[in-house]
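Do me a favour: review this protein, sequence plus structure tokens, and tell me how the chain folds. Record follows.
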Amino acid sequence: MKRPLLWGGFAIALLFLGLTILNASWLAPYPAGAPKQVAQGALSPLSVAQPGEECASARIEPPYHRHLANTKESVLRAAKMGAWLVEVDARLAAGGEVVLFSDARLDCLTDGRGPVREASLARLRALDAGHGYSADGESYPFRGRGAKIETLSEVARAMPRRGRLVVHLASDNPALVEGVAAAYRRSGRDPVQAQDAFYGPAEAIAAIRKRYPDVWAFNPDAARQCTADYVAQGWSGFLPESCKGRTMLIALDEQALLWGWPNRLIARMGASGGRIVIEGPQASAAGPIAGVTLPEQLTEIPASFNGYIWSGDAFTTLPALITRFDDRTQEEIDASQAALERRRAVQ
């Protein structure tokens, strides 16, 4: 009786040792390169709305800089401050023009009404894009400051040579993908050569991959499924099919669940042509990508990580990693620090 138990224990010990070596991060090559931040919404106020809250995009922290999501000024400054990719939201307007706007309707953020898709470009340009933002429901700090709805072609044309966009395809309407492709043609920008990226609904991503086979494009739900599959199967040393050549989206507080994290997993994903994106903590299994919102959260990411970090507040997280591009005035730095202290107090 004792001998079978002894041999069983020995076999389990060998299996444990084998899995430990197979998934040992320290035995993998040290990854080349540095982490790359994605500026969610370019530089924009942080939303404080609760899930399901009406006009969620308009409910913000007290603003501490002048920038709004999807504006040319915000996009260009995020690129200047060192964002590897700057995120914008692409929506179809009447007539097939693609505009950059956070919501499907105009009611919450602007002084207009109705769906974006039913508004002409001329009508959209006449609206105040900062009209509805408020921290208290009584004051509207961006109202009347000249914020306008931009087109994708205008912003793509204005991007600096080293600047990159990640375009959120905000619907699965096939006409949106056609409009995005037309906007790129008008701007003279090739998304593959520019190393731009796309994310959005599965149908839209399939269509954009068909048009641009070599571009980085991903669906967040599929990227989270890749992570879940790897947690279940990664012990074997093999990547699940859902991860090969695709994107893995990892919540900041779930890194410890990953086999061979970080170096071994980075090597496995890299060998398959895949990419890794880290999002903020307590991310939901479905829905929008959650951004990192505090500079100290960056210290929770291993020093060897060379993938992408999704930032919900690039105005503070970009300078935390890339100080040489920090062009903030002292007044902006002081306002940022005060905003971070308020945020820490409620988190």
